[in-house]
Design brief:
The protein is α/β, with parallel strands linked by helices. It has a single domain, classed as P-loop containing nucleotide triphosphate hydrolases (Rossmann fold, 3-Layer(aba) Sandwich). Helix content is 49%, strand content 16%. The protein contains 9 helices and 8 strands. The strands form 2 sheets. It has a 5-stranded parallel β-sheet with strand order 2-6-1-7-8, sandwiched between helices. Strands 3-4-5 form a 3-stranded antiparallel β-sheet, covered by helices on one side. Strand 4 and strand 5 form a beta hairpin. Helix 1 packs across helix 9, helix 3 packs parallel to helix 5 and helix 7 packs across helix 8. The longest helix has 17 residues. It is globular and about 50 Å long. Bound molecules: 2'-deoxycytidine-5'-monophosphate. The site of 2'-deoxycytidine-5'-monophosphate has 14 residues, from helix 2, helix 4 and helix 8.
């Protein structure tokens, strides 16, 4: 009788600042290559939502205890907290702002890093965030660090918001908000946003989405055919 063999975990990481195109690229690449996709920013946003709702944003210990008693499920673009679908609330400007506050708390990061490793176990998965290639999956098959000019990132964010029928702040305000979040994410003591030493840097400012996809999928296919698995 054949003995079932656990499938090896194969992880591709995409890190970088807000608005660099990570989510779109990660989702499309996952479709193209038949990988799963993990949006780790959505996990920090869900924690910010819970912290805000329960008045625990500035009490890291109490927030960490609260997380231990919750069921956080993220699957196919939907985020459930104890079975409630909170996906629509995760892009609220307040939640967005608070997400970089909770992301600086070591206890929150420890909880989510564990959850991310569990989510990836035994799967072929593209993980997108700020610390995926540096902290969570240092042995990933391929690591990418996506960037773009702040003005271009603000322009893309405003297009996204308009597409979703949301009120769009002016570009200067959006650029300011993005830069403040970058500053907090890049300067925090715990797992700051930084490119892994072995990550490929891709500046998407003047690249078409299709070009970015072709570039990244080419590198992933090459690494896969080289048999390099984590
Ligand atoms: O990618 P995003 O904009 O949805 O992320 C929301 C916030 O969470 C952002 O301020 C950075 C933080 N984050 C993080 O610190 N580490 C991750 N792996 C993902 C997101």
């Amino acid at each position: 009788m054949a003995v079932p063999v656990a499938r090896p975990t194969v992880v591709v990481t995409i890190d970088g600042p807000a608005g660099a195109g990570k989510s779109t690229v990660a989702r499309r690449l996952a479709d193209l290559l038949g990988f799963d996709y993990l949006d780790t920013g959505a996990m920090y946003r869900a924690v910010a939502l819970i912290g805000h709702r329960d008045g625990l944003l500035h009490d890291a210990e109490a927030l960490a205890r609260r997380l231990e008693s919750l069921e956080l499920v993220i699957s196919g673009g939907v985020v459930l907290v104890n079975g409630d679908d909170v996906t629509a609330q995760l892009r609220d400007p307040e939640v967005t702002r608070f997400s970089s506050v909770v992301a600086a708390q070591p206890s929150v990061r420890a909880f989510l890093v564990r959850a991310q490793r569990q989510a990836a176990f035994g799967r072929r998965i593209i993980c997108e965030g700020r610390d995926q290639g540096t902290v969570v999956f240092p042995d990933a098959l391929c690591k990418f660090f996506l960037t773009a000019d702040p003005r271009e990132r603000a322009r893309r964010r405003s297009e996204d918001m308009a597409r979703q029928g949301k009120a769009v702040p002016d570009l200067e305000a959006l650029e300011r908000e993005i830069s403040e979040r970058d500053m907090r994410d890049a300067n925090r003591a715990e797992s700051p946003m930084v490119a892994a030493a072995d990550a490929d840097h891709v500046d998407t400012t003047s690249l078409l989405l299709e070009d970015v996809l072709a570039l990244l999928s080419g590198r992933i296919q090459k690494a896969l055919s080289g048999g390099l698995e984590t």
